[in-house]
């Protein structure tokens, strides 16, 4: 942390996005962003938001800049919610320290965030972004993990899962004030051999945003309640157990089943919500083909058509060779994978009806945030 | 019924296919074809199988001919199951009449069936075909409705719903021998204003057959049980009530929700089953657009991409005009609709990315079978 003068605190952090293995879908409190069910996730080490937060002890306008562009805060209320909560926590601590001190210390925040992947690619960048803001403010105000977690969550629900490395369990909690709704690092040691292969598929369809989608599913799906009460708790335990015992096949089966069930409850909504497109389905078929002898890969899809395929490190080249049979991958992306993994891929024979992937990213998982 | 000589009984009937409004998906007994849940349906008057059954009192080979082609009975065991059951019923009756009569009367069957729509179009023709065989045998052997229903069902489960006009409720029953598993005509008077618009969309994908699909869903979906126990019973009542009170909007809402839920439990299966394609989804979007002000149409999809849209008779022209904005319809099909409804459709302005429908059929619903 550097202090540019008495009234300015500045911290820079780098925080990865995360992928849920058991999905979060549905809020029980829209304001506090309290989920209807637990979820569990891994971070994607290579997709990060590097974020600098300056807290300036003078009245002023809060500003947020992402990849060089100013964010219009009046239409993105979540930033203000986070800043307000940060100031509340600071005031609270000061009150604890000195009951007589002036309560009206005024501050404003400047946030500068850079993601190392295109925000427009449709990869959920807000989770990494809000987690980074929360982590930087945690450093500035010396908050505990629970406070920082809340800060991330009220910015963007699943952001709270990006605050740790390893397997992270976001517990829905029971309390109305959200005080027991926190993401925690599970006791399992990180499994560094887990890699993900992210495929970005373009899509011109008008997307149902995840907040709107969650609301619609909660209000109209007759299957969601059963998922939440009976299916998710068991799957959380299955993921923990498979991860702890390094049982890739069991882990992969739960991941795929839960991705499909998340999309099933979307389809069970009125009107039905559809995030998977033809490319997503082709990818599902390729994974099934790859898994024919033995389950070695698991697909998972969030609220969009882009695929995340989880494999063990030594299966990455074989899986990419399977991809190349049916999917056209940008050559620069392929080249960087070849360099990194020290393998080479043959030019594939022509596919009958290849599909186009606009970006391929290969990354280890579970690394967690870092401070600079 | 005509008798060509003493040993031959011949009956010809015409039976329509049916569309489930609350879907049948999952068997509790594969041999007797007993379903896991009730379903409810309407017949499609214009899509019929005209079938002649000859029961010949001499040993011989059973034969089945559909649209001029001989069916290979060794790979279509269901026909033999139906013939065996018919002979069992006949023997049973003869025994009741005369305990001393020879039990070994031997017969064989000749079936000639013609559908008035292409079997290859992907419209479920087996329901109409087996219902027609069952109805013809009912006439020949003077069976009661329950016996005839069983005969249709063991041929092709949903065939038992084609045995009546009006709103037909196939009750799953509780007994192991299937004796209380019957389709019955509900008490509501037929609603002749209900029309359906069937759109056939081509699809080159390898389809998961419905028997295999049902098995997979029953064995792997964690949502199916909830659907069966809690959702379907309520929806059956909702359909009955809406149909009885001629409440089209309520009826349409249940129909669409149940079609979507059926496809949701397919997606929740391992590996996931997908029947809807891009064309199906475009049709869903068109129906949503058409329903924006008021719910006037309901889509429903069986185990394939073809759509069935249920509308009231006076809304047929308006709905077809909506279709024409985005869907290319064969001109001869459009012309026959124009002639029948005495309307004319303008040549639509060019759509950006029209989809192709290979067959359009407009038909009243609920008419039921007929004898000739």
Describe the protein.
The first copy, chain A, is α+β, with helices and mostly antiparallel strands and 372 residues long. Chain A has 2 domains: 188 residues, Ribosomal Protein S5, domain 2 (2-Layer Sandwich); 171 residues, Alpha-Beta Plaits (2-Layer Sandwich). In chain A, helix 1 packs parallel to helix 2, helix 1 runs antiparallel to helix 3 and helix 5 packs antiparallel against helix 6. Chain A is globular. The termini of chain A are close together. The mean pLDDT of chain A is 92. The interface between A and B is medium-sized, with 26 and 26 residues.
Reconstruct the topology from this structure.
The structure is a homodimer of 372-residue chains.
Chain A: E1 8-22, E2 27-29, E3 34-35, E4 39-56, E5 63-66, E6 69-70, H1 77-97, E7 108-115, H2 126-141, H3 145-155, E8 168-170, E9 183-185, E10 194-200, H4 210-220, H5 224-244, H6 248-267, H7 278-290, E11 297-301, E12 307-312, H8 316-324, E13 327-328, H9 331-341, E14 355-356, E15 359-364, E16 370-371
Parallel strand pairs in A: 5-7, 13-14
Antiparallel strand pairs in A: 1-4, 1-16, 2-3, 4-7, 4-8, 5-6, 8-9, 10-12, 10-15, 11-12
